[in-house]
Every structure is written in structure tokens, then in C-alpha cells.
Amino acid sequence: MSCEVLIAGAGPTGLVLALWLTKLGVKVRIVDKSAEAGTTSRALAVQARTLELYQQLGLAEAVVAQGHRVPALNLWARGAPAARVSFQSIGEGLTAYSFLEIFPQDEHERLLIERLAAAGVSVERSTELKDFEDDGNLVTARLSRPDGNLETCSARYLAGCDGARSAVRETLGVGYPGGTYRQLFYVADIAGTGRTLDGELHVDLDEADFLAVFPLAGTGRGRLIGTVQDERADRADSLTFDDVSHRALDHLKLEVDRVNWFSTYHVHHRVAQHFGKGRVFLLGDAAPIHSPVGGQGMNTGIGDAINLAWKLAAVLNRQGRNGLLDSYEIERSAFAQRLVATTDRVFTFVNASGSLAEFVRTRIA
């Protein structure tokens, strides 16, 4: 079955691209090799700029209503609150969304899937992009369907929104230079009580390992996100919440009644050498990937999708020249390079060890 744009990957990036293109009258197909949408999530934050863009899709109000509005960031040092930064005071007069919105990625995806289905487009699950050819006029892709059969799909353009291990990027032969942080990240969704489960964001500055408590919707719910870089970082498969929880309990005054989910992962910092070749484009983690410190990852992919969507629609509808598509890589690659460099510096500072680093980190609050 042919289409104008074939989208590989049904995370937030691919879903937003499909929604925006559909809104602009472009015929899309969106495929994903997973059998169902995710039920857990690392990504949480929806930035003000994303909400502003979502206004144009009629999504902003639903995201704000279903998520949790975070009014402030609290910095902790020496086991006590040291400073409070109001997001409202920072964003006042600049945006209608002067807060940090917490909306877990799995819930975010469900909302996008519902809106896309309402527009007449369904995610084709258990469907994997195997390979493709770009002859300069069309992209011909081979898709493995749920029954194991191969289908040939012709599209005017292909969008690779298929994550850090992107098959689209690998087939293009595009390099993905960068590295992997030595620290091991962990996430824990918890229920409990304490000063840091008050609906605001809390960050502990006392030690060289990053630690933050993000609020979740509902009373007494939060997510711990932290790192370890000692010998515990070498046993990702066996690390448990009990191995890392003492600092949160002691420094951030938490009392945990229940751990709903715990996971560990390593984080990469990489930027693809190209964001597109010919009629094929890379978006989201398929292009840049970076530290979650700053909460920009999911938002960056959504920004990629919106930047590319209107340009593809303009070219397909003969309202723009083919050269317009070249600006996607120019704009988004430059943004990604700056973002990865910035998050790398911030992450290095937050995780710096030694007495001088600790002095600077705990005194900035």
C-alpha cells in the first residue's frame, strides 16, 4: 500500500509527525515493530514550547488537564531545602505555560494515538521496517507484517522515528558519533509521604551522583531519577531500589510506602552526522540522543516532527520548493549539537566529584 509519508516508529516523535501531517492533508502510514504501546516511561517533562505548539493541534489543554503542573524547582543541600525557583516568575510574560508539565510518556502516547485514530489513522503494530531503497523519486520499503509476510510500500518520503537503534539510520549508513556516560541511571516510581512529595520538583546537590524527585499526578506519588558511578554501576541487572534509596530517604526526607516500578539504564550522548539523505529523514533519538538532565529529550523529538511536517506538506502540496527540506537538517542539527553540548556540560558539573566540586555545587543554592 502506498502513501505520501511512511513513518517508522510510533513514539511521541512519530505520532506527532503523523498527526501534524494528517492535519495538513498528507496521507501517512505509521508502523511500529512493537506489539503494543509502552506501559512504562522514562520521559516525563513537557516543556512550555511544546505546549505552545500543541495549541495548534488542539492538544495543549488535554495534556495540561491529564498531567501535573509543577510550579517550582527546589534545590537541597546538606539535607535541607536551600533555594526555591518559581517557574512562573521565570516564564511570566513570555508564555502562557509558565510551569513545567509532567505527563509520562506512556500516557502521552495514549493521548496521541487516540487523537490520531480520531483523524482516521491507526498505528500498524507488529510491523517492522526491514529495509528500503530511495531511487530519487520514491522510497520503496519492505515491511514485515504481523503474519510474517513481507509487504512492499512505496512512499514519497520516509521518516525514521525509530529510536537510538534506528534501522532507518543504519540502512542510510549515517554515522552516530558520541559516547556513553559511565554513570548508571535509575528510575523509581514510588508512593509515600515526605516533604519532597509536595507536587514540586526537588534536586539534591550534596553528592556527585545526580538525584531528583519529580512529582506525578495524584497525592503522594513521585518519580526518583538518579545516577550511581561507583561499583554499583557495574551491576545494572541486579541493582535494586534498596541499593540506592538510602540517600533519598535521608537527604530528601522521603518515606516510601510502595515502589511501583524500578528500572536502570545507561545514557548515550550522540548526534547523527546527517539528519536526512535524499527522501529519507531522521528524527528524535534516531538523530540526537543526550542526558535526560534538563528534560529535553522527548521535547526535542516533537520539535523535529513539527519542523519537518509543515515542510513536507508544503513540498507535497507544491507550495514550497524541494530545497525547503534542506533546512530541516540545517536547523535541527545545529539545535541538537548545542543541546547535547549543553546537557553534557550540566551533567558533568552535577556529577563532578571532589571537595571543590562539592563546595561549588552545594553553595550555588
Account of the protein in words:
The chain is an alpha+beta fold. The chain folds into two domains: 3-67 and 104-176 and 272-348, FAD/NAD(P)-binding domain, CATH 3.50.50.60; 179-268, D-Amino Acid Oxidase, Chain A, domain 2, CATH 3.30.9. Helix content is 32%, strand content 32%. It has helices spanning 12-23, 48-55, 60-66, 87-91, 105-118, 167-172, 241-251, 297-316, 326-350, 355-363, and strands at residues 3-8, 28-31, 45-46, 68-70, 72-77, 80-86, 100-102, 123-124, 128-134, 139-144, 150-160, 178-194, 201-204, 211-215, 221-228, 254-271, 276-277, 280-282, 288-289. Strands 1, 2, 8, 9, 10, 11, 17 and 18 form an eight-stranded mixed beta sheet that branches. An eight-stranded mixed beta sheet has the order 6-5-13-14-15-12-16-19. Strand 9 (128-134) and strand 10 form a beta hairpin. It is globular, with a radius of gyration of 21 Å. The termini are far apart. The mean pLDDT is 91.
Secondary structure: helix percent: 25-40%
Oligomer: single chain
Q: Could you name the CATH class of the largest domain?
A: Alpha Beta
In what range is the share of β-strand residues? 25-35%
**Largest sheet entry:** 8 strands, mixed
Distance between the termini: 58 Å
The CATH topology of the largest domain is what?
Answer: FAD/NAD(P)-binding domain
The overall number of domains is 2
Which CATH architecture of the largest domain would you pick?
A: 3-Layer(bba) Sandwich
Number of helices: 10
Could you say which overall geometry the principal axes of the C-alpha atoms support? globular
Mean pLDDT: 91
Rg over C-alpha atoms, rounded to the nearest angstrom: 21 Å
Per DSSP E runs of 2 or more residues, the count of β-strands stands at 19
Structural class: alpha+beta
What's the order of the H and E elements?
EHEEHHEEEHEHEEEEHEEEEHEEEEHHH
